[in-house]
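Follow-up to my earlier ticket, as requested here are the two runs.
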Amino acid sequence: MVDPRTYKAAVYRGIGNVDLVDLPYPKCGDDEIIIRNLLTGVCGSDVAAYHSGGDDNMIWKDHEFGHEAISEVVEIGRNVVGLHLGDHVFPNYDKALRDPMRMATVGGFSEFIRIPECEVGYSVLKIDNDIPLRTAVLFEPFVIGTRAARSLNPGPSKTAIVFGAGIIGMSAAIMLKWFGCVKVMIVDISEWRLENARRFGLVTCNPTNEDFKAKAFAEFGSKTSFLGERCSADLYIDAIGKKAAIDSFALVAGFEASLAVVGVHHAPVDLDLAMLCYANWHVGGCGNLPTEEAMVDILDMMRSGTYDLSSLVTHEYPVDQIEEALVMGADTTQAQKVCIAF
């Protein structure tokens, strides 16, 4: 029998080590709420922490972790307004605990989270209860993808190439389509993930068995100038944080091409600054769109039912199998989005 005075919590202990512990059930203060996690996505940062260490991703040793939760409100302090018991919410990872250093250790892999100084629209964001959980749980990666897509000023006359068919690359590619881009190609070496991408109407390229430059020219056309022959695609997103993405961009990008770098690079890469100068490339980061603004487009897209987003959730594990989930999250041959289900 479960002791109602405690809850199960996954605590990060270091490389290859996660403990499942019993913690005291939190007391709800007047300005607080208690939420029960329903489904939590395993982020690439969680996987990286488990396999190689958490400090680079702000996943601190001896902390509860997980930050991609969709949760249900189970207690409401008397001063909190705008919520009802049973409402679905996203604990807004960089604001939920009122500590930006805890953005990756919110507690999404625990049964319950206490939200201090709760402010609806800030520390928690309301998610429609009728959006399926396996769709809603993708909210956080779609924030990243939406930031990247919006930073490039997408639209109906534009075309795009996304490097990486993981969940961030897929979310960016889907949002580029949602914003009206007429053609989006996604590039990856996992044929399994590319097959998923094709189900969303994305053009695909696997550079291990296709000539990326030739495929880009064939799909988007090319223009010849003093720069040589260059691809006519307008927008590019690096969603892998690998040298191959930057090299591929530099290989084909034409005049006025824009690149958003979403994947985190942990080593320097070369980029021909003379070409950047002459081609007038626009190279930026992952975007700074606030989560609260990104959610408008994301929820509109999710409500529309245009895309079967739930198909991107390939695995669910109970919390007592979190280490198996963290191992599966690194397997690009069979995993897209791995989740912890409560």
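Run two:
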Amino acid sequence: MNNVILRSLAVENYASFADRIMFTTEIDASKKEYLENTFEIADKRFNKVSILYGANGSGKTFFCKILREIKRLLDWSPLMAMNNSQLLSLPQFKGMDAPVKPFVFDIAYQNKPTKFEIELVIDKTTYHYEFNILGKKIESELLTKKYRRTEKLIERTSSSFKDIVLRSELKDFENKKQAVKEEALCLPIAALLNNELASKIVDAIQGIQVVSMTAARLKPTKSKESFSDERLKKYLNIIQKADPTIRDIKVSFEEEEIARQKIENDDFENREIIATKTTVGVDTAHAVYENGEETSSTPISFFAEESLGTVKLFTALPYLFDVLESGGILFIDEIENGLHLLLAKEIINLFINEESNPHHAQLICTSHQPLLVSGNFRRDQVWVTSKDNYGKSTLHRLNECKTSRAKVNLVNRLLEGAFGCNPDMFFERDI
């Protein structure tokens, strides 16, 4: 879905975020610096790239997990309608029914619901979706639409389907809302039952990719187009910068159906949920030399014999090009993990550059590396996570700092810990 913009993401009482934190890609309109780092949609300007900094354990990874948790609950809700223990016991569904964990370091938060909020701009219309959940039970749910005025489309005030009010484009789900159980969200059930707008919003949220560079290699994307001959040529050009001996890359892509379950409910119009497993195999050919001349090539086991950084880079490329070529949103946790600083900066520059990012794809990444923002960066592109002595994480935007940019070296101030993003020293200073 090309025309999707992440405007904001917020959470309250989740993981280390005890109190509400709110992240936005909408720029501070009072700042006119480096507008080439931004783009305009529906009379609003948004950042192409946003970077979150913080010490280890400050909440950066939990920030990425906010979106993963929203996606998990959207996936889980249709499965709830099936109530099929055999299907739900499959490995890929393990943990999908887990309760949402609130902030655990203060008893006062443990019996309070967790609140998730996400705001998207789809085809120049803003959709705000939020819900409260306590453990596994949905306590409230709200979907609004804003084009010229704000309109409520879903308004739910309890766990019961009887307390769901539907309006406008969601009105045709009214006679099917009894399919919504107290542990399920209304929006994905409406999408499953062919409500066009619900499907559009759910697809937009599920289309946001979240990856972590801390993994030895990233899970394969589920798009065969990501491994087309044209794409592989682009990947090869980039991988050769990390390993100049590579001459060719061959990828085998297999998607296997491992389960098919019909939903035994008249309201579901004989629909089925199909579980699949995706496997990607990679073979590379490398140059062989004799007396300094390239004479032949030899295969190697790419995943077993290449460097960890090269493997990470290769498995990250499909995610990058999927959004750069079509538009979309990509979250990367610890973008510099396993990569040289210049390569991490090159990935960021791909999103800043209008030529390589013609559809205004957005990159949101976390990092320990303040040198990534050396140069032409807006302060409202940079966020800082920090954690206090009570285990509570907070999130602040650097443009909230009132000091003149002309008087402050941003990188130096980050390294000095001026914004609370550096860890305490492990050792006494006299050791």
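The only thing I checked on run two: The chain has nine helices and 18 strands. Let me know what else you need.
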